[in-house]
Design a protein that fits this description.
The complex is a heterodimer of chains A (301) and B (310). Chain A has 301 residues and is an alpha/beta fold. Helices cover 28% and strands 25% of the residues of chain A. In chain A, strands 6-7-8-3-9-10 form a six-stranded mixed beta sheet, with helices on both faces. Chain A has a four-stranded antiparallel beta sheet with strand order 2-1-4-5, covered by helices on one side. A three-stranded antiparallel beta sheet of chain A has the order 11-12-13, covered by helices on one side. The chains are: A alpha/beta (301), B mainly alpha (310). The A-B interface holds A 51, 53, 69-73, 75, 77-79, 82, 84-85, 87-91, 94-95, 98, 101-108, 133-134, 147, 150-151 and B 43, 46-47, 164-169, 171-172, 174-176, 178-185, 226, 229-232, 234-235.
C-alpha cells in the first residue's frame, strides 16, 4: 500500500471521554483531502494525533510506512485560528526562512541557497508582494499564505491545515484552496485541510473524511456524501438531495434537534437553523459555469 | 568642584577625575556588559510577553540581595542564587502553561516580596543605616568591586550562550508554541532555558541599577528597538546599543551630579538610566508616527480619494 498517511482504528480518550472513536483512513501523495466536521467533531484532535502531540488510547498512525515520529519536518502544520503578534520583529520572509530549520539549535547563517529557497516558496504562495512587511501587520489571508510557505519550505511529505478558511472571505478562501491543490499536485505531497463546510473544498478535493462526534467516514467524495453513509455517521437518518446542481444534506424527520448541534456546517444566514446541511457538489457534478440556472428569486450567494 | 572651562569642552561634560577613576572604569565596563546582555535577552522577553516574569525576578532579587548581605556574601551572588531558585519555583508551579504563567509568576513574586521585606528589615536594623537597602533596591554602580567583574563576565557570557544555542527553536516557539511543538521542538525545555537566562540577566541588571528598576533595562531598550526594526537580530543590536548608551550617559551624569543640588552627593545612576531609556522609548515612536503622518497625507493627493473625503 502506497499510503503516505495511514491512520488505523485510532481511539483517543481525554479524562475518560472518548474524543476519537475508531478513526481510520489513508491518504496518498499528491492528494488533497478535506476533513469535514462541525465544532467539537474532533478535527483538531485528529491533527494532534497525526503530529504526535496527542497520545493514542488505541490504534496506530503511520507516516510513509513508519510510525509517527515527533522530530523533524516530515509534517507541515498550520494551526487553527492563528494570528501572529503584530509586534513580532520578523518580515514575512524571515518567518518562511525559519520554516527551513527552526527546530534546530543554534543560529542560521544566511546563504544564497536559503534565500533562493525562501524566495521560491514566497512565490509559490504568491506572497512576494509583501515579503518585506512585518508579518504580524499582514491581513489574515496574507498571514495564512506566509504560514503555508513556512510549513512547506522544509519540504514536508504531508501538510496539515486546521480550518484555514475560517477567517477568510469566500474569494480569498477559493484562492487558498486552489493554491493548495496545485501544491499538492506539483510537489506530490498529501494535503489535509479541515473545514466546517464542504462547499469551498469540493472543486479540488480528491477525498473526504467526514467527522461527527469523534467518528469518521472516509473515501472518495461520491462514496461518502451519500444518505446511507452520512446517516450511519450522524447516527440518525439524513437525506442527501440534489437540488439545481447543488446537494443538500437534510435531516430526516424527528432529528432536527440533533442536527442543530452541527450549526457550523450550516451555510450562511437566511437558512432555517437546524434544517439542513447544505452540500454544493459543484466540483463533482460539473464546473461552476455549467450549473443550471437558478430559479427566480433565489439569487446565488 | 571647580572646572577650568577654558581648557577643553570635554571638561564641561566629564568632571575632573572621571577618566582616571577606577570605580568609573568598573562602572562603565560592567554597565556595558550588562546592557548588551539585557538587550539581547530583553528582545525575547518582550516578544514572548514575559515582562511580568522579569519584574518578578527583580523583586526576587531584593530577597536574594538582602539575604546575601545578611550572610556576608556579595550582592551579585545573592541576586543570582535568589533568581535561579525563583526560576525553578516558577517552572515547577507551571510558568510554561499559557494560563498558569502569570499565576506561577505571581505566587513566586508574592513569596519573594514577603521574604525581601523581612531581609531588608533585618539588614537595616543590623546596620542601623539604610545604605545596604539603598544599594540593593536602587543599585550603586560606583561601588561594584573589581573582584566582581569576572563573575559578571561569566554570567553575561552564559546568558548570551544560552540565547545563541536555543535561538532558532526559541524564536519558533515565540511565534507559535503549537507550530514549534509540531516541528518537534521541546517547547517546555526551551522555555525553561530561556527563563534561566532571563533570571540571570535580571540579576546582572540589579547590580547596576538595583532590583526595583532592573526590568527597565531589560524591557525598555528592547521595546524601543522593536519599534525601530522588523528584524530580530537587528532589534537585539539596537536594544544593546540603547542600553549601553543609557548606562554610560547615566554614569557620566551621576558622576557630575555631586555639584548639583542638594550638593556633595551623587544622584543615583539608576534614575538617569531609566530616564534615558524612557526617552529612547518615546523617541522610538517617532519614525512610525512620521511615516503614518506621511501616509495619511499621501492618499489625499489622489483625486479619487479626495472626492470621497470631500
Ligand atoms: N485537551 C482536551 N481536554 C479535554 N477535552 C478536549 C481536549 N481537546 C479537545 N477536547 C474535546 O474534544 C472534542 C473535539 O475537539 P476538537 O478536536 O478541538 O474539535 P474540532 O477541532 O473538530 O472543533 C471537543 O468536545 C473538545 O471539547
Ligand atoms: Mg478545531
Amino acid at each position: 500500500m502506497s499510503a503516505l498517511l495511514s491512520v488505523h482504528g485510532v481511539d483517543v480518550r481525554i479524562s475518560g471521554r472518548k474524543i476519537l472513536d475508531g478513526v481510520s483512513f489513508e491518504i496518498g501523495p499528491g492528494e488533497l483531502t478535506g476533513l469535514i466536521g462541525s465544532n467539537g467533531a474532533g478535527k483538531t484532535t485528529l491533527f494532534r494525533v497525526v503530529l504526535g502531540l496527542q497520545a493514542l488510547s488505541a490504534g496506530s498512525v503511520r507516516i510513509d510506512g513508519r510510525p509517527r515520529s515527533r522530530r523533524g519536518a516530515a509534517v507541515g502544520y498550520v494551526p487553527q485560528k492563528f494570528l501572529l503578534d503584530p509586534d513580532l520583529p520578523m518580515r514575512a520572509r524571515d518567518l518562511v526562512d525559519l520554516g527551513l530549520d527552526g527546530h534546530r539549535l543554534g543560529i542560521a547563517w544566511p546563504s544564497r541557497k536559503r534565500r533562493a529557497r525562501v524566495e521560491e516558496m514566497l512565490d509559490a504562495v504568491d506572497a512576494l508582494r509583501f515579503a518585506e512587511a512585518r508579518v504580524g501587520s499582514l491581513s489574515g489571508g496574507e498571514q495564512q499564505r506566509v504560514l503555508i510557505a513556512h510549513a512547506l519550505v522544509g519540504q514536508p511529505r504531508l501538510l496539515l491545515l486546521d480550518e484555514p478558511l475560517a477567517n477568510l472571505d469566500i474569494s480569498r478562501g477559493e484562492e487558498v484552496v486552489s493554491l493548495l491543490a496545485r501544491i499538492a499536485r506539483e510537489q506530490s505531497i498529501a494535503v489535509l485541510i479541515s473545514a466546517h463546510e464542504i462547499n469551498p473544498l469540493l472543486p479540488v478535493m480528491d477525498r473526504v473524511i467526514y467527522m461527527a462526534d469523534g467518528r469518521a467516514a472516509s473515501g472518495r467524495t461520491d462514496e461518502v456524501v451519500r444518505a446511507d453513509v452520512l446517516s450511519r455517521l450522524y447516527g440518525h437518518h439524513v437525506d442527501v438531495l440534489n437540488v439545481h446542481g447543488r446537494v443538500l444534506v437534510v435531516a430526516g424527520a424527528g432529528s432536527e434537534s440533533d442536527l442543530a448541534g452541527h450549526e457550523a456546517v450550516l451555510p450562511g444566514p437566511g437558512h432555517e437553523h437546524g434544517a439542513a446541511l447544505e452540500v454544493g457538489l459543484d466540483g463533482v457534478l460539473g464546473a461552476a459555469g455549467e450549473q443550471p440556472p437558478r430559479p427566480e428569486g433565489k439569487a446565488p450567494r | 568642584m571647580s572646572l577650568d572651562q577654558s581648557r577643553a569642552p570635554a571638561a564641561l561634560i566629564f568632571a575632573s577625575g572621571f577618566f582616571g577613576n577606577e570605580a568609573v572604569h568598573v562602572a562603565l565596563g560592567v554597565g556595558a556588559a550588562v546592557a548588551i546582555v539585557a538587550g539581547v535577552v530583553g528582545v525575547f522577553t518582550v516578544i514572548r510577553g514575559q515582562s511580568f516574569a522579569g519584574e518578578a525576578f527583580g523583586d526576587i532579587g531584593t530577597a536574594g540581595g538582602s539575604g546575601a548581605f545578611l550572610l556576608g556574601i556579595g550582592p551579585l551572588l545573592g541576586f543570582v542564587i535568589g533568581n535561579v531558585i525563583g526560576a525553578g519555583a516558577m517552572e515547577l508551579i507551571g510558568v510554561q502553561r499559557p494560563r498558569g504563567r502569570d499565576l506561577a509568576t505571581g505566587i513566586v513574586l508574592g513569596a519573594a516580596i514577603g521574604l525581601g521585606a523581612l531581609f531588608l528589615y533585618l539588614t537595616v536594623i543590623s546596620q542601623s543605616t539604610s545604605g545596604a537597602a539603598q544599594t540593593i533596591l536602587f543599585g550603586s554602580v560606583f561601588e561594584i568591586s573589581s573582584s566582581t567583574v569576572p563573575l559578571v563576565i561569566l554570567i553575561g557570557a552564559a546568558c548570551l550562550a544560552i540565547v545563541a544555542t536555543i535561538y532558532r527553536p526559541l524564536l519558533l516557539s515565540s511565534v507559535s508554541a503549537e507550530i514549534a511543538a509540531a516541528r518537534g521542538v521541546p517547547v517546555r525545555a526551551i522555555g525553561a532555558l530561556y527563563l534561566l537566562a532571563l533570571a540571570l540577566t535580571v540579576a546582572l541588571a540589579a547590580i547596576t541599577i538595583g532590583t526595583i528598576l532592573s526590568t527597565a533595562l531589560l524591557v525598555g531598550p528592547a521595546a524601543a528597538a522593536l519599534r525601530l526594526t522588523k528584524s530580530t537580530p537587528r532589534a537585539m543590536l539596537y536594544a544593546a546599543g540603547i542600553g549601553v548608551a543609557a548606562l554610560w550617559i547615566g554614569v557620566v551624569l551621576a558622576y557630575d551630579s555631586d555639584h548639583w543640588p542638594p550638593g556633595g552627593r551623587l544622584w543615583p545612576v539608576s534614575f538617569f538610566v531609566v530616564a534615558i531609556v524612557f526617552c529612547a522609548y518615546v523617541l522610538s515612536g517617532l519614525p512610525v508616527a512620521i511615516r503614518e503622518r506621511r501616509e495619511r497625507r499621501a492618499p489625499a493627493q489622489e483625486p479619487a480619494r479626495l472626492g470621497a473625503e470631500g
